[in-house]
## 1
Amino acid sequence: MAIALVSAHAECFSDDPDMHDNHLWHMDLLARAERIPELTERALTDNHARRRLNRSLRERGMEAALRDRAEDGDRGALYVLVRLMCETGRVQEAQKVVQDIGPEDQYARQIAARDCWT
């Protein structure tokens, strides 16, 4: 019910800050309700949905889904996956993911170098 109420007053990148905040809240509610398919569909065209989806996948330990998204071109998913691997001490695995999925992605390489060794 909360999702329906908030979505009626939500707009991405609205000039009205309340509408924009409601949009962010809507994405958060979808994730909390585990409505991953709906969030995934919205992530195709909505940056906020994409970021919230990737965060939700991380929170749920769904590394395979993050990897699939990264392989499909979602750089945000790649960054989330590499950070997760670094934080859990899987340095070589993180470096391999970067090499396999984004060998030319300087930011992914920087994450693997900086976050895995600090």
Note: The helical segments are 2-7, 17-32, 36-43, 47-59, 63-71, 75-87, 91-101, 106-114.
## 2
Amino acid sequence: MPPADGLAEQVRTASCDHGIKRWRLYLTPEQMESVAYGLWLHRMTGSAAEANRFAREYGVVHSPARASGEEPPATNGLPSAAGAAARGGTGVGGRG
């Protein structure tokens, strides 16, 4: 799956808020789902830290079953990327 339209540009234009030591990155629901997918892929290579933090801080989890139309597995109460998108999540921050 390719990155969502405009995601690369949003990442390039992200800004760092030095006062709170966090990056400000504004994403559409589709872009948030794309980020969750990328973190899921990274987790499959052996590193789950980023995906776990994204899920914990923003409540966005990629579910391969949901993406393919199958019944999703349990996500320990965390919403999928589609669920977070439905809630209208737009701002994503990360420690810089």
Note: Helices lie at 7-12, 29-44, 49-58, 64-67, 81-86.
## 3
Amino acid sequence: MNGLAKDFQTWITSNGYGVLEGLTGGVHLRYKLRNGRYFVTGSTPSKHTAVINAKSDVRKILGIASESPRAGKYRHEKQSAGYDGLNGNPLYAVPPEVERLRVAVKKLDARILELHPRRNADRLRELARRRVDLTDQLDRLGAPVSKPGTPAHT
């Protein structure tokens, strides 16, 4: 392990992002990140840009905003938590439970919007109650909840 790899190891452990697990079968270092995922990097990087890129990759995996003020300015990281910086997708590194609930809410919204309020009042109330339960679960997890669209019958 050279000095650049030691600097990276110090950075990742001192910030609490992960711990070094050891070497892989070759000459790569394997880190276990705090979200349970693994990150593998070279044990002898030859350029400081390799370490900078590794830090960026770790932040993306963990859903942490970039340290670069320029990146924050252009990617609006302060406005959307969990911004991945690759394609503007704020759902990067979203826990599977949150994603499952969001998909269920979208499906319910689509079904609710298809129903006519007078002809399907009972079914509409049942679906609306279920949507409220799902959005309450999302609120408890700290995830933003989308608002339903406009009904098709208007």
Note: The helical segments are 3-14, 48-62, 69-75, 96-114, 121-141.
## 4
Amino acid sequence: MTNALIHAGSDVDVRLRAFADHVRLEVRDSDSNPPVPSPLALDEEENAEAEHGRGLLIVEALAGGWHSFPNGRGKTVSLDMPIPTV
């Protein structure tokens, strides 16, 4: 969601959907450019205070999967997070 607020320059719509085995987060904006994960530069990796370059890396590490697709007025980025069984 932070990436959409910083980079899209448009209104952002957030939707959270619960399923039996996972939760899906959808973020919609009016920017049609797809998100592109970028590797951190060495100086950014060493700097815990760096403000950019970690968003999609964190999503990739935590989510069961993420996708980006056009929605007719921009794009939607969604990610699925599994619900742990007890």
Note: The first helix runs from residue 2 to 8.
